[in-house]
From TrEMBL:
Name of the featured protein: Glycosyltransferase 2-like domain-containing protein
Stored InterPro entries: Glyco_trans_2-like, Glycosyltransf_2, Nucleotide-diphossugar_trans
Domain Glycosyltransferase 2-like: 3-166
CDD domains for the chain: Glyco_tranf_GTA_type
Superkingdom, natural source: Bacteria
Originating species: Mucilaginibacter gynuensis
Length: 332
């Protein structure tokens, strides 16, 4: 039994596409749940019309705006299926998504979630990049997934089929940060002993937005805090419980803090805002290497180093793309 959960807010141009992509599955879910976070556009009217047409569609409207984490949490908790898919309302599923991923996750009782490759599209539905993970189709254990979580959120996109018992085990999104809540929850699922299964086949569209007005950059403080919370709340305690020590965790915190410090060279922040960012970065890691990069970017000297780093990463990117193409061609 599969539930599809679609949290939404002001996505009138796309919400119908998302709902219909779910209803037109080769193996239909038994319920489609939409939680509207007090949209101010035509989203409520579109959902009202769809509910009259699609009998398995259940529409809920929040009494007040909860934000992304709160609305997603409400939506996931309302699901009653054994498997629960989280689909953002501007994305779409391929017709075989439910059929293929539900079959795959059923082969692995210890998989807390299943995910697949996706196709990026822009606001006008033009194709952009294919997103594939640098791994083969198959299962990884909870311990392996926990180790890989040190590298970041290891999915092609936030379009996931969860085993509901895994969501219950980690209490869904309760108490998680407003930014990076998906990374936080996936890491918690791994820490709870669940592995995950990946299908190296494109099974959905993931919409990529143009960052108008530097909105994403202005959320940098929340982003840094969200990353820190993953390490403080989940990864460090889990590594200690497993007897692995904190050496790798602390090294990775340094790497994340160094990467985040480049925001100090951006012109969009005032000096007080930069002071807040420095404080947040040091909470993630205050190692000497981090302090050096904070000084470097704060003094507008990070550009040359970034250019050198980009040049070094080019050969690795070429090798990675070549391997992914080879894996894809063999799979076909």
């Amino acid at each position: 039994m599969v539930s599809i959960c679609i949290p939404t807010y002001n996505q009138a141009p796309y919400i119908e596409l998302a709902v219909r992509s779910v209803y037109n599955q080769t193996v239909k879910p038994f319920e489609i749940i939409v939680f509207d976070d007090c949209s101010t556009d035509q989203t409520p009217q579109i959902l009202e019309k769809l509910a009259l047409e699609i009998p398995i569609l259940k529409v809920f409207r929040q009494p007040h705006n909860l934000g992304i984490a709160g609305n997603v949490d409400s939506c996931l908790r309302a699901a009653t299926g054994d498997l629960v898919v989280r689909l953002d309302s501007d994305d779409q599923l391929f017709p075989e998504y439910v059929e293929k991923l539900s079959a795959l996750i059923s082969e692995y009782p210890n998989a807390g979630y299943a995910h697949a490759a996706i196709q990026e599209v822009d606001q006008s539905n033009n194709f952009l990049n294919e997103r594939r993970l640098f791994r083969k189709t198959g299962f990884v254990t909870g311990e392996t997934a926990l180790m890989e979580a040190l590298k970041g959120y290891r999915v092609a996109a936030n379009l996931i089929m969860f085993r509901r018992e895994a969501l219950v085990a980690v209490n869904y999104l309760a108490g998680r940060p407003n930014f990076g809540e998906d990374y936080h929850m996936a890491s918690a699922i791994s820490a709870a002993g669940y592995g995950n299964v990946y299908l190296n086949e494109i099974l959905g569209y993931y919409r990529v937005w143009v960052d108008v007005g530097n909105v994403r950059q202005k959320r940098k403080l929340s982003e840094i805090d969200g990353i820190r919370r993953v390490f403080d709340d989940v990864l460090a305690p889990a590594f200690q419980r497993n007897g692995w020590g904190l050496t790798k965790v602390n090294q990775t915190r340094v790497n994340f803090a160094v990467r985040q410090s480049d925001c100090l060279g951006w012109d969009i922040y005032s000096e007080p805002e930069k002071e807040e960012l420095v404080t947040a970065i040091y909470k993630l890691s205050s190692a000497p290497k981090v302090k050096f990069f904070v000084w470097l970017h704060s003094n507008k000297m990070g550009g040359l180093f970034k250019l050198f780093s980009n040049l070094k990463s080019v050969p690795k990117s070429i090798i990675k793309r070549s391997v992914l193409k080879l894996q894809t061609s063999r799979a076909k």
